[in-house]
Specification:
The protein is an alpha/beta fold and about 375 residues long. Helices cover about 40% and strands about 15% of the residues. α2 packs across α9, α3 packs across α4 and α5 packs parallel to α6. It is globular.
């Protein structure tokens, strides 16, 4: 793809933290003729996607692909990695916003013993905080897993993933480290093998810039060893079942073939851009957004040291009319993300991920600025 290539017939319009605008060729890939999911053609497609996903995750291990949202893989992680309460096992969930709270609720819904360590919204877990929480939860050595949302989409907080992984492993070496990278993978630097992430999961509709409906996750050997000891893994989300089919180059259930074809197009685009270049582009978009916000009097809800590279949460200056801004954006066929959960009406979120470029953000800024305070 050359710099002159047009990705979109129309200008990008969605500045949410996801779903994002999908390039025209990735959309068109969904319209290719279907074929049997047990055919040689599907085997070739699945193999090509698997190879590219391992590169994007920076792993030599397996990457599972499922037709579900990222929340489905949150549940899969719990079902495969955390033993039932009668064993004395427990899972620690580090909560700092709406989506880490969801992972806590998923774990409770799976009937596991859950320890919740919570800090205020817009704050981040440092390696020291995470290690202290894991040490407390592992007082008797029965901590099976630690769950962290790398990029808390509800607030725009991004964690020091490498540092937290090392810190947690130092106090709870037998606990699996489970990471939700739904709104960060393919936008932020993530190195699954180097950082010893046992599970790293994401969704198609965020920085991968594919339509919603797919979840993918890199899974370590340690996870499969644990899963073999866990009761009640279910079937659809059973990693041992998934692994047995992956060895044959396929999936247990019918995959979302059209979406997988779209994913292949986007994976090729991501790798052509280059991971380092893509990570740098997302950092630049974050910095551009934060500079613009400060210059225009908006309040940054997250300090620089914990600021996400894919979503920025802002509060308006005194007298700012959020409803009027949203009306202007709607008239221009644009939208930003509203404040999430308890922040609704208090703040808004600008997503700068996927295939967005600086010019796209400048168009957004001009519409926002067209109103008066």
């Amino acid at each position: 793809m050359t710099p002159e290539t047009t990705l979109f017939a129309d200008d990008p319009r969605m500045f949410f933290p996801g779903p994002v605008d999908v390039p025209d060729d990735a959309v068109a890939a969904q319209l290719k003729p279907l074929f049997g999911h047990r055919s040689g053609r599907m085997d070739e497609l699945f193999s090509a996607v698997q190879e590219r996903l391992r590169t994007v995750f920076c792993t030599d291990s397996r990457v599972y692909l499922l037709a579900c949202s990222g929340s489905g893989l949150q549940e899969a992680a719990i079902r495969n990695c955390v033993r039932m309460p009668h064993t004395g096992a427990r899972v620690l969930v580090l909560v700092c916003g709406g989506f880490s709270q969801r992972w806590h609720d998923v774990a409770v819904g799976c009937g596991r013993t859950v320890v919740k360590d919570e800090i205020p919204w817009f704050e981040a877990f440092t390696p020291d905080l995470a290690a202290a929480a894991a040490d407390r939860a592992n007082s008797d050595g029965n901590l099976d897993a630690v769950c962290l949302v790398h990029n808390e989409t509800s607030t725009g907080v991004m964690h020091d993933l490498a540092g937290i992984s090392e810190a947690v492993r130092s106090v709870a070496p037998n606990a699996l480290f489970l990471v939700d990278a739904v709104s960060s993978l393919a936008g932020a630097e993530i190195r699954v093998d180097d950082w010893q992430l046992d599970i790293c999961l994401t969704s198609s509709q965020k920085a991968l810039a594919v339509p919603p409906g797919l979840a993918v996750g890199a899974v370590s050997d340690r996870v499969l060893e644990r899963a073999a000891t866990v009761e009640g893994r279910g079937w659809y989300f059973d990693f041992l079942v998934l692994d047995s089919y992956l060895a044959r180059g396929t999936t247990p259930a019918t995959p979302a073939i059209s979406l997988v074809q779209s994913l292949l197009v986007q994976l090729d685009r991501i790798l052509e851009e280059g991971l380092e270049t893509r990570w740098a582009r997302h950092r630049d978009l974050r910095d551009l957004t934060r500079r613009w916000a400060v210059d225009r009097g908006f309040a940054l809800c997250v300090p620089d040291e914990h600021a996400s590279v894919t979503v920025t949460t802002l509060a308006g200056p005194p007298g700012w009319n959020l409803e009027a801004m949203n009306q202007r954006l709607a008239a221009a066929d644009m939208a930003v993300g509203s404040g999430y959960g308890k922040e609704k009406g208090k703040s808004f979120r600008i997503g700068h991920l996927g295939e967005l470029r600086a010019d796209d953000l400048q168009r957004l800024f001009e519409v926002i600025e067209s109103g008066t305070v």
